[in-house]
Amino acid sequence: MGTISNRLIIICSMCQILAVLSSPGICSAANVSAVFVFGDSLVEAGNNYYINTIAKPGYPNGIDFAKGSPSGRYTNARTVADIIEEELGFENYSPPYLAPNTTGDVILKGVNYASSGAGILTITGSIFGERVCMDKQVSYFAKTRQDIILRLGATAGRILLREALYLLAIGANDILFQQISTTQDITQYLDDVLSKFKSQLITLYNLDARKIIVTGSPPVGCIPFERDVRSSPDSCVSSVNDLAKLYNSRLKSLLQKLTTNLPGSTFVYVDNFAILEDIMDNYRSYGFESVDSACCRVIGRRGGLVPCGSLSRVCPDRTKFVFWDPFHPTESANLIGAKHALDGGLQYVSPMNIRQLANA
Q1: What is the per-residue pLDDT for 182?
Q2: Which one of the listed residues 41, 94, 217, 332 is annotated catalytic?
Q3: What does pTM read for this prediction?
Q4: Do the beta carbons of residue 169 and residue 81 sit within 8 Å?
Q5: What distance in Å separates the CA atoms of residue 86 and residue 280, rounded to the nearest whole number?
Q6: Transmembrane helix: is it a keyword of this entry (predicted)?
Q7: Distance between CA atoms of 333 and 50, rounded to whole angstroms?
Q8: Is 340 an annotated catalytic residue?
Q9: CA-CA-CA-CA dihedral for 17, 18, 20, 21, to nearest 10
């Protein structure tokens, strides 16, 4: 599998951004016991193969992953979670929780609970059928925790859990597919989302999670899906992005309060909005040629109307596209996102970056 240091191709003149992520030995798996991944399709690794849903990442998803074999991922190759795990020195990616072979000592290095269509609210993503919502993901982790303690004993098990990293990439679907009732306004809706998320985060803390990374919503008004559905081919959909920015501001404040109020915890906020904005604003400097269209496409001016699947056409050079499909970035964009999250400054990740958290 190799680290980014060996594999990252510098595709632009801004070498300081896309250059080798780190020197060998700065951070390794010895600093982090395990990585537990929660979230939606941005970090899914295949859980949806095992549930009754229309949201399953079939080929050509994963076309550049493991020689084109089914990967469980909604991108051409690696997700941001995969890249971060590699850079932290893990030889294998955290496996999907629902996979039959995710048992035994495998779970001691981490598990991936993410599910396409999932949201913070239980109702989010219901248009896709079954999905593993955040409440259920947390309950699955509680079972994993119990299994780890049974294998290692209470003391060693809790040490492992407290030295692990917890990556949560969730909330974008709650913005994108918002289901605001007739008795709610935007403020009340966000109150409900963030109240639910606060409860979920505290539950994780009570289950021995201490180093918790939470990503904000990206500018979902800029994805090919929104541009095509809302007939906004030449600009982002500002109303959707405004909601994402309001959610992000409140989420960042919540995480700061949780770090203050939960002893021994560190909640790190990754500003996905700022990260994708940077990529879109500087896409040519990064070596991209397309900033608003899907590489894997069927119909739509920007290829945003139909998910990537067996009927799709795939662009020959994935490194030239920011977006893989109507919703998700390419691996090339994920590499930049991972760089910002791992080693970026406060404009992208706060109160510290992921590498600093791992070494804390």
Answers
A1: 65
A2: 41
A3: 0.92
A4: yes
A5: 25
A6: no
A7: 28
A8: no
A9: 70
